[in-house]
TrEMBL record:
UniProt xrefs under PROSITE patterns: NACHT
Record-annotated NACHT domain positions: 60-207
Phylogenetic lineage: Eukaryota, Fungi, Dikarya, Basidiomycota, Agaricomycotina
Domain of life: Eukaryota
Keywords for this protein: Repeat
Protein name as catalogued: NACHT domain-containing protein
Family annotation (PANTHER family): AMELOGENIN (PTHR10039), NACHT DOMAIN-CONTAINING PROTEIN (PTHR10039:SF14)
Amino acid sequence: MYPQVTVHNLFFILHTAGRVDFNPNSNAYGNQHVSCLRGTRKNTLQAICDWANDKSAANRIFCLLDVAGSGKSTVAKTMADEWKAENRLVARFFFSRDTADTMSTKSFCSTVANAFASRNTTFEASMKQYMRLPDWQLHPFEEQFEGLVAGPLREAQQPAILMIDALDECGKEHGVRRKLLQTLFSRYHSVPLLRILVTGRPESDIK
């Protein structure tokens, strides 16, 4: 269902077309986490590195699923910092039930797109072209993912890594998490240079 559009909301949408609020310190980036201590989680980190560097690997999705408190987000933070230092095209979204924004997918596509755009000008130009549509924020999730993430990544033609941290914290209400999983499953095949690292608890729908 589309959200109800009032005259005030429509005025706001029309006058903010082509841009989205960008907060580099948002909790959605997982900046509140710390990296692994030196010498810890070596096997896990090496396995992720091997997967990310193996261009012949048929499986482009790596799932790190474990119980709460096992350090999954710490591992994700470590890899994000390492890949950024290597100047790779990487984006991270950390789901959390602490805030409305981070427990839903409302800002998922724009947050991911802004992270990619900060590292690739071709991606940024393609993303901004989609954002010129006056009603893009009202589009269904799968259309936003195509317009803000998948399409620009195909234009960029650069290997990219999308990190989805604490996927189990994404709410199930109104089929939100189901739509995210369905979209990832159906769309990521169209972006052959994209790899996806997922962390979360081993809940049935995620597995």
